């Protein structure tokens, strides 16, 4: 039987937040679903999901976007992990990262939450921080803007020009992580861009 991976895109619900920096994880999930010609459907775990495959005959993917606000993402993620019988080491969390420059992707397993309340809540709900993460760089705000406001702002015009590439690269990173493991994905996506 093919192994199952739960891939979660963190964000906030509703049109107000759709294209904000904090929702880049959900944009990556939209890309993964679009690549497979799939649409999200409501799930009883307070999330929208797509059940699909990495590739025919490959790992099963459950793509999920919690309906909860970012800071309380843990409940839906934990509920989905239980429902699908997925252990934390097969729960991939895709999220925005202030401490990584825009247009950069980093992957890791475990470690701290870096002040990211969505990641903090998922770790608390799963009972461990040892889950894979695809961290999508959004960079720090310019000047003295509060980071809490920055993450809830839409991407700027210059960022939007490259957003599709960034989202596509992050989706590639998720697929490579599942197919080939963390190290292979890190070696490809942590390399400097040429």
UniProtKB/TrEMBL annotation:
Catalytic activity, EC: 3.1.1.29
Site description Stabilizes the basic form of H active site to accept a proton, residues in chain: 96
Presence of keyword Cytoplasm: yes
Residues at the catalytic site: 22 (proton acceptor)
Listed GO MF terms: peptidyl-tRNA hydrolase activity; tRNA binding
Family annotation (PANTHER family): PEPTIDYL-TRNA HYDROLASE (PTHR17224)
Subunit: Monomer.
Protein name: Peptidyl-tRNA hydrolase
Record organism: Microbacterium ulmi
């Amino acid at each position: 039987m093919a192994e199952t991976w739960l891939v979660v895109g963190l964000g906030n619900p509703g049109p107000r937040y759709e294209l904000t920096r904090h929702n880049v994880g959900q944009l990556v999930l939209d890309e993964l679903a679009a690549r497979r010609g799939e649409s999200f459907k409501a799930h009883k775990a307070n999330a929208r999901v797509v059940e699909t495959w990495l590739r025919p005959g490959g790992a099963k993917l459950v793509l999920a976007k919690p309906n909860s606000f970012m800071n309380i993402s843990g409940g839906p993620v934990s509920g989905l992990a239980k429902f699908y019988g997925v252990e934390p080491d097969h729960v991939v969390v895709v999220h925005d990262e202030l401490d990584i420059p825009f247009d950069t992707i980093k992957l890791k397993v475990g470690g701290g939450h870096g002040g990211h309340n969505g990641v903090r809540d998922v770790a608390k709900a799963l009972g461990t921080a040892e889950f894979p993460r695809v961290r999508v760089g959004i960079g720090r705000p310019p000047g003295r803007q509060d980071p809490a406001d920055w993450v809830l702002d839409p991407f700027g015009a210059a960022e939007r020009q490259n957003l599709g590439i960034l989202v596509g690269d992050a989706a590639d990173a998720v697929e490579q992580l599942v197919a080939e493991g963390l190290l292979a994905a890190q070696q490809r996506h942590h390399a400097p861009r040429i």
